[in-house]
Amino acid sequence: MFTSTVLPASMLRLSALASSMFQKFLMFAGVFFVLALAGVLSGNPTMLGGLKFLMPASEEVVVDDELDVEDVEPASEALSARMRGAMDYVSRRYHVSAEALQPIFVTAQATGRQLQLDPLLIIAVIGIESRFNPFSESVIGAKGLMQVVPRYHQDKLPEDADKAAFLNPVINVKVGAKVLQESIRRNGGLENGLQQFGGAITDPERRYAGKVLAEKQRLEQAVQKFRTT
Q1: Per-residue burial over 23-50, b = 16 or more CB atoms within 10 Å of its CB, e = otherwise
Q2: Distance CA 137, CA 130 (A)
Q3: What is the pTM of this model?
C-alpha cells in the first residue's frame, strides 16, 4: 500500500528559494568563467582587473600575499656550529624550546661580531641574569634577558621603540651587549667589566664575574660535546 507525502507550504517555498539561488550561482559562475577565459586570451588588463574586483575579499588577500613573497627577506642569518651547540645545551639546561632561543642566539652572534664580543659571553650573561626569561624584572627595575635598567640606557634604543622595548628579546640583547662592551672598555678588562655590568664593582671576590665565566665555560664544554656527537 502506498501513501502520498504532502510537503508543507513553508518547505515548498524554501525549496524553491534554494533552487533559485543555485541557478543564479551557476549563471554567475558561467559568466565569470567566460570573462576569465576572454581576458586571458586577449590579455586585456581592464577585464582582468574587473575580475579581481568581482573576487571575494578572502581571495584578494591570497593574491596579494603571493605577490609579496619575493619581497620578504630572510628572517635571520645562519647560526655557526659553535652557536648551534650552545643553543642545544641551553635548550636542555633551561627547558626552553630551540625555536624560542633561535632569534636570541642569532642576535647574540651578529651583535657579538659587530661589537667584537664573544657571543658565548653574551649568552652566558643571559643565563646568569634571567635564565632566558625575556620578561624577567629585578627589584630595581632591570628588565629582560640581560637585565638592562631602562632609565640608564634609553639612548641605546631604536628611535621607534615603545615603552615595552626592553622586554623585546632582540632589542634587549642588542642593548645589553652594548652596555657590556662599554663596561669592559671603561673598566680595563673582562672581569672588572663584568663586575660593573652586574652592579658589583666593589666586590673584592668578583663573584659575579666568576659566575658568568663559569657559565661560559660550561657552554664551551657543551659545544665540544655537540661537535663530537
Answers
A1: eeeeeeeeeeeebeeebeeeeeeeeeee
A2: 8
A3: 0.67
